[in-house]
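Supplementary Text 2. Reproducibility record for the structural model of the 293-residue chain.

All settings were left at their defaults, and a single model was retained for analysis rather than an ensemble. We include the record here because the model underlies the residue-level annotations in Supplementary Table 4.
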Amino acid sequence: MFRGAMVAIVTPFKNGEVDEKALRELIEFQIANGTHGIVPCGTTGESATLSFEEHERVVEIAVEQVNGRVPVIAGTGSNNTREAILLTRHAKRAGANGVLMISPYYNKPTQEGLYQHFKAVALEVDIPIILYNIPGRTAVNMEPDTVARLSKIDNIVGIKEASGSMKQITDIIARCDDDFAVVSGEDYLTFPLLCVGGKGVISVVSNIAPRDMADLCNLFFQGKYEESLKLYYRLLPLCHVLFCETNPAPVKLALAYMKKIESEEVRLPLAPMAPANRLRLKSEMEAYGLLQD
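Retained model, structure tokens:
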């Protein structure tokens, strides 16, 4: 159901408010360049600092602007199971094709707690759910056995794996059925993950290089592995530089450099990038050919 290069789209801000016009334009930029899906209100979309009303509005804008052309997978995770259910219900009402649910953060649940959390949401809201494991932000790793248990629930259809471990990725793929979509949450692991049976990536880099990330996946699925590998190595410097500081500060600055958004604004406690890293980012973008004179 969900495969290829799906963009973890930023939430553009202007003077402290969601810049709805810029968000719509970013969505059009993505679709015009072959992106296979739009993922609003994830980590890159700064969901942690959106108000409840802003979160719902961003999802509504994404669904409305996409208008059925590609899947919309709305971020609806929370460390509060009741809140996750409310956000997931709203995503379904808004017309999202699926939801992306981060593991509960800060609470540090056990593996049984993780299982019960996702099960509760899945039973409450009949919408395809992609799990999201990113222990570097949540403080708890969702282990392969837990993922395998959850994959048996009908509407839990995949996982965004951002542990950074190929061993974990392969263990999950080995334990789950072929129709369970394992996608990368780390741009730099996209090609290796495809090689072991993964289905794609929910990508930060796609914000600024959507055509190349989509083509990397397209070429792989067409069996053109060498061409896909070349694109992977071309993209790799961007994969690294966009994480030289906490995401999404670098990618927002990159979009501002490209004049895709008016402001690089992030919400506290995130801060603008340090001068040395700003130069590093601009240099890599120039080398890639993303900046026009």
